[in-house]
């Protein structure tokens, strides 16, 4: 077991350290915090199928909301989770406002329903990349969202990130959970993957 | 591979290993390549957070999709953005004058005598809306900008800030 003093270094612990410094009056570190967390928040917004411009607006709104309500976040360790949740909610609100359907709340059936193909926005560099892309595209949409956001965080944070995305407990971390397991099984079954 | 293939269930119950780490690393690289974080996003967020009146109400930003990106021959490049807050709606039309400057026409409802500040990096322009709620900044340098609207200069509660946008 890990005790609280030696939490493994992860995105959420780095963010928590900066956020603590910010709250004690070192406002200059906010810039570092923004630079640290914007990639994971960007991919959270884009995984909700927001347009790029709208995703930028949503990420910015989440940061503005954080600064307004920074006192209400009791545990700095939960900052990453709070921001992911805020981005996701804000993305839904914008999708609804603009008359687009919001992604459905998680349902266990999502894990067995095959998903429509993801558009390949540009030509991928190598065989390995396009192979992996094809395998990701075969996963249920909720799994794509989970793995995409998880990929921009660190292992100790996986369970908390999954929770922020509204996934059930055990979706990922410390065990693989169904989404990552599905992908691994698909890659196993692909004879071309081993050399990719 | 000599190992027998595992089922999804077996994989699901197993601990995340270094192969998973590699796969996730490649997934991050893939998304970074296909859908990169816009170069200006971090700057935009940082700029939006440098404002003093951070406890002011944040307006909701809505772009009008039908105007964005329309570029017919000879027509000026125009985009319209609407900011909505509990008590004010502000519509802003941005017309490109040159590669360096834009004109900003605004209309705030209800809008008589609202103090409008257009914050830019290292600078701020100020004006007050007229009896119809109209205001204009005739020539503004392009770049990041944020509006601060004050209906009553004495309280922070009467202040609305907008997310920053690229003019």
Observed structural traits:
A: 196 residues; mainly alpha; 2 domains; B: 167 residues; alpha+beta; 6-stranded mixed sheet; 5-stranded antiparallel sheet; 3 helices
Concise summary:
The complex is a heterodimer of chains A (196) and B (167). Chain A is 55% helix and 0% strand.
What's the SSE blueprint?
The complex is a heterodimer of chains A (196) and B (167).
Chain A: H1 11-23, H2 30-47, H3 52-68, H4 79-97, H5 127-137, H6 141-150, H7 158-164, H8 177-189
Chain B: H1 8-13, H2 18-34, H3 41-48, E1 57-58, E2 60-63, E3 78-84, E4 89-96, E5 101-109, E6 115-120, E7 123-128, E8 134-141, E9 144-150, E10 159-161, E11 165-166
Parallel strand pairs in B: 1-10
Antiparallel strand pairs in B: 2-3, 3-4, 4-5, 5-8, 6-7, 6-9, 9-10, 9-11
The protein's oligomeric status is heterodimer
Please provide the count of β strands of chain B: 11
Poorly predicted ranges of chain B: none
Amino-to-carboxy terminus distance of chain A: 36 Å
Considering residues with a beta carbon less than 8 A from a beta carbon on another chain, report the largest interface and each chain's count. A-B, 57 and 49 residues
- Low-pLDDT segments of chain A: 105-119
Shape label of chain B = elongated
State the distance separating the first and last CA atoms of chain B: 56 Å
């Amino acid at each position: 077991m890990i005790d609280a003093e030696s939490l493994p270094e992860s995105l959420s612990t780095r963010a928590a350290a900066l956020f603590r410094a910010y709250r004690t009056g070192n406002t200059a570190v906010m810039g570092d915090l923004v630079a640290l967390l914007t990639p994971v928040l960007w991919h959270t917004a884009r995984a909700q199928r927001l347009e790029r411009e709208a995703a930028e607006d949503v990420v910015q709104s989440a940061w503005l909301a954080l600064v307004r309500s920074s006192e209400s976040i009791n545990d700095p360790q939960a900052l990453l989770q709070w921001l992911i949740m805020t981005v996701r909610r804000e993305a839904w609100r914008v999708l609804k406002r603009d008359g687009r359907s919001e992604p459905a709340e998680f349902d266990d059936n999502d894990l067995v329903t095959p998903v429509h193909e993801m558009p390949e926005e540009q030509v991928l560099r190598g065989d390995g990349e396009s192979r992996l892309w094809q395998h990701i595209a075969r996963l249920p949409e909720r799994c794509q969202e989970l793995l995409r956001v998880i990929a921009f965080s660190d292992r100790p944070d996986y369970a908390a990130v999954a929770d922020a995305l509204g996934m059930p407990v055990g979706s990922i971390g410390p065990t693989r959970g169904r989404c990552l397991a599905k992908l691994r099984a698909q890659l196993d079954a692909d004879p071309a993957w081993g050399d990719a | 591979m000599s190992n027998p293939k595992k089922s999804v269930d077996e994989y699901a119950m197993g601990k995340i290993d270094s192969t998973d780490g590699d796969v996730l690393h490649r997934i991050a690289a893939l998304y970074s390549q296909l859908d990169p974080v816009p170069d200006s996003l971090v700057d935009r967020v940082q700029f939006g957070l440098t404002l003093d009146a951070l406890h002011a109400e944040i307006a909701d930003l809505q772009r009008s999709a039908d105007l964005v990106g329309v570029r017919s021959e000879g027509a000026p490049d125009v985009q319209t953005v609407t900011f909505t807050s509990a008590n004010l709606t502000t519509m802003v039309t941005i017309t490109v004058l040159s590669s360096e400057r834009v004109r900003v026409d605004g209309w705030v409802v209800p809008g008589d005598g609202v103090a409008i500040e257009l914050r830019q990096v290292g600078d701020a322009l100020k004006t007050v809306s007229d009896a119809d709620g109209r205001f204009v900044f005739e020539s503004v340098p392009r770049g990041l900008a944020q509006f601060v609207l004050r209906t009553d200069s004495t309280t922070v509660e009467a202040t609305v800030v907008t997310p920053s946008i690229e003019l």
